[in-house]
Amino acid sequence: xxxxxxxxxxxxxxxxxFNSLTGSTAHVGNWPGVTVDKKTGTYKKCPExxxxxxxxxIYSLSxxxxxxxxxxxxxxxxxxxxxINIVDATNLERNLYLTTQLMEIDxxxxxxxNMMDAVEKSGDKIDEKELEKRLGVPxxxxxxxxxxxxxxxxDKAYAESKSERKGITVLEESALGHLIGDVKIALKGQxxxxxxxxxxxxxxxDSIETEMHKETVQMINxxxxxxxxxxxxxxxxxxxADARYKYISKNFAPTVQKKKKEKFSMTRSxxxxxxxxxxxxxIPIFLxxxxxxxxxxxxxDFLYLGAIFKLPSLEDLGLLTAxxxxxxxxxRWLACIYDGAVxxxxxxxxxxxxxxxxxELFGWLGGLVEGSSMSPWAIGxxxxxxxxxxxxxxxxxxxILVLFLFFSILEDSGYMARIAFILDRMFRRFxxxxxxxxxxxxxxxxxxxxxxxxxxxxxxKERTATVRVIPFxxxxxxxxxxxxxxxxxxxxxHVGNADAITFLMYLLGIVAAIVSxxxxxxxxxxGETPPFxxxxxxxxxxxxxNLMAHLWDKTKHFVKKAFTIILASTIVIWFLTHFSFAWKxxxxxxxxxxxxxxxxxxxxxxxxxxxxxxxxxxxxxxFVVAAVAGLIAKENVIATFATLAACLVxxxxxxxxxxxxxxxxxxxxxxxMILATGITVPALISFIAFNMTTIPCFAAxxxxxxxxxDKKRFNGTLIFWISASYVISAAIxxxxxxxxxxxxxxxxxxxxxxxxxWHNKNAQKKALKKV
Amino acid sequence: MEKTLDLFxxxxxxxxxxxxxxxxxxxxxxxxxxxxxxxxxMRKRAPLGDPIEVTVRGYELTLRKTEAASxxxxxxx
Amino acid sequence: MKIWEILLIVFCVAVVAGxxxxxxxxxxxxxxSCDCGCGGCSGCSACQKAKEDQNRK
Lengths: 771, 77, 57
Known about the structure:
With 771 residues, chain A is mostly helical. Chain A has four domains: 2-160, 3-Layer(aba) Sandwich (Rossmann fold); 177-257, Helix Hairpins (Orthogonal Bundle), CATH 1.10.287; 348-739, no CATH class; 741-771. Chain A is built from 33 helices and nine strands. Chain B has a single domain, classed as SH3 type barrels (Roll). Chain B has helices at 23-31, 65-68, and strands at 2-4, 13-19, 39-45, 52-56, 59-63, 71-75. Chain B has a six-stranded antiparallel sheet. Chains in contact: A-B, A-C.
């Protein structure tokens, strides 16, 4: 099968084109560096099927970050049948800089002038025939987004792939033309592939190349000594870059006819940017947007209408029966939207999904099983082992999707890159560049792609620090733990409100991440703050198609996960709680003699300082089981709660009054746990914090291992996760339970900080003495 | 008049004369189109005064003051 | 035991065994182990690549 590689600058639409060509739904976003690894797909409309390879975006073929190395190596070593160089037509000059480098490689090539729709809209014109003539490579106008010109592009690429192409360079006329020619001949004599490309890179003293061709470097150095340019001296790197840009502005730029004469005009994107990154309002606007996202997703008092206008509750309106149930079906629907306050959109969707769909469905299924003639154990297995777990997990789909939708909008609109711009100064204090913010925000969706995205960070130590703290940015799977426990705290202890607790826990994660980075960057991962040079993409309205693709993908995997890993885990947990070590079947009431209880009671004391250990008595081990099950997948925490709560209700003869564990997103399950164990509020918060900051799920651990590569760093990371979660949770529990322990913690932290400062000063002195 | 890019006022423009500095940062600046002869317009500063945003070769680029300090410019009249 | 109950046990064993087997096979094949949307993930072949590198060594 023929292979066509898509290469081009970051954010020029490679992945959009890839999706259009192959019908995939690969993740796209409006910021440079979304794609950090090559992806493959198949295009079927050519005479034979063609494999399309989407490469990470690169600005030049002298790589700077790990993902850029991937792109360069693919084009050079894997020898695709054709390179489709995608060029952002709205930004021709800089994009063609890469083109002039790609042209030097001996590979068939086609240029796709992307975003032609945007160019035409602005009234500019590009003479592609003239450009084609000057470049010597076929040029096709396309719009990847509107799917225009794709067929023509692929036909051209297919035709090109049948013949060979020798590299050409735009540097021939420059002062270095002769040297490049000589080096090329020398390399050709050594049977080097792509001699022209390597010759140019050698002349530029590219570090990878000088390693590869040590013998030839001599020749260049000799030439260097005799060479003196009036502007650049003998800085060949500068000379080459300059020659490329000079050639581009002289030969290619004239093919563009700009409509407007002014050089720096204000576009709509500029106007939006003026507000969004305003000197004073930039940061408040950012915080407001974050707050609005959480408010729209979680708040049970939308825009605080209920509090402001003192709206009556359903009970006040006489729409509830004496038992607190809606009087009719219509009121049930109303209760999804309003009860003393208008709910935020996220909560409304959540209520409809849970009360009207999932709750009904599983209630009906449960009743069906209950009424059947099966033995009690089988009914228990189906209802508690299978249904409870799945229902508890599925009930969290709406908030996860709504939150994810908002982050997708941020990503797609181009605001993400601006956040990096706004926050860079602050991040620098912590030893990171603003660029590190993007993988962190991705972490709110899922840690796995977020960790992989850290490849865009050039500095190895910065990357390690970022990978380590990414799990602290609470991912979608951890959200159920937050909302269920927070909801139970409010429902049972009547303190605070659920969305505030959720929001605060998210903030806690962010603060923990920042403090940890600061700590690591001043101890084990010391180093210079890496540079920050980044393109800011133009704003555009989020693409509906894109957003839906993101959401659909998220839904698919969430549901798939619920019916595979989570289902298997709950079944295993049910079996382990219903059999003793002697393989005797146990009733719900005998849960404490089970295998699971036996094992977890052994480790229970370890969690005493965190508030959910020995002090919780004989049923306290349930929290330990939930936390450990969370290592497989974080959704398991709530699924385990649901399964175990069913037993606890039977065992403790709990009287919660019409307890419906499947409903209320696991809140009732947590309430059952509270009743059975007598756990306190600080301990519950500590439990959330522990799950948020401890070792993430298996998938994320595996990714961290792959991304860090270094075994020692990975082990350090595991130790870091365990100790961070232990310290944070212990602090929350002790301070929450006995306020005066705050002073002890403060003293401890002060001591550690002093120690680090003292140690660093000493090290500095030593270093100075050596010099 | 010659001055480095980090000292530019908002709205001020100029032409790159040379790029000092070393290694990777210089390489990156070249790749992003900051080469001698390129026109640069200072757009704005981030809320905390750093980094800065400039227009170069028709697109928006952000870089820190420390990196901008290695770009020597000829101020346009 | 009734037929339904036997089927139930078979189903449970099949789910647990199936999930574990699928994971093991995926790992052997070097397929990504992440469950959180690999199709939409920016580095969908990353887990695969790490595995390939290991094999090469």
